[in-house]
Please model this.
Amino acid sequence: MERKAYLLFSGGLDSIIAAKLLQKLGFKVVGVHVTSPFFEKEPEKLKELAEKLGIELKIIEAGDDYLEMLKNPVYGYGKNVNPCIDCKAYMLRKLKEIAGDEGVIATGEVLGQRPMSQHMQAFRSIEKLSGLKGRILRPLSGKLLPPTIYEEQGIVSKEELLDLKGRSRKRYPEILRNLGIDIDNLPTPAGGCLLTEPSFAVKVRDLMEHGELTWENVRLLKIGRHFRLGDCKLVVGRNAVENATIRKILSDKDYLITVPGIPSPDALLRCKGEPERDVLRIAAGIVARYSDAKNEPKVEVAVYRNGKLIERLEVEPIRDTTPYSVTHKGS
Ligand code: SF4
Model:
């Protein structure tokens, strides 16, 4: 009977090694890749990589339940808003949904490689939270870890596993050679995790504090300069590509603000309910400040909604703001 292993597959070096090692042990490998706007890798490169490795690939989108977890992770955050232990457990729960009761569940984790999520206690927490106690095979460090049910049932033997520990990559060339991995000829899907970036974390926290953490709003965080104006968010495009993106993602309820007739950013104003009058004026003043009319005493700014011009506002450019420095609290 075919032996299957379901591997949490990031496309990074450790998951490549895990895939090849599992294949060497006789498993048919199914790579499960969980993606979200926070951590995205180029899907085409992932598919190409999976093909070259000879593994099946399943790509799953994180759902609203990921955002729920992010608001209140059981094991807290790392340095920024990265809930690594809960995040790993989330991914493994998704993987388990695919695997059912079939096959071995595995990851490319290395003991001691990452401070938050890859030490012995973290491994136990991930197993508990994902409901996979004793059922996660970590073949790269398996020799150093307590036996999983797969070893207990004789499905794999400890001797066949590796004993990698820590961050050093000194032994990798030899391991790659032994597994016949020609890393130079494999595609490398780019992309890190935005939740670990301080400037992105500020914007995520702002959404959480205002009860606005939705995927639609998270996608907005990837572009533009961001300003908080009470119950509204202003996103100001920084170049032609971002301006075009802003126009593309405008919803019927959003406002488009721009300075007509001169080079100007496009900006999106998204509010819970209707914005107060002075919020519109502040938003217009910020947009004017980033336009070519920034040194004029007064600038005429156009406000559109749903494709229609709703008003023109004459405002002074607001020069003393930096993104997130405006925190209008309402009158
Ligand atoms: S770095 Fe990001 S993607 Fe990776 S485990 Fe942590 S939160 Fe999840």
In short: The chain has two domains: 3-185, 223-328.
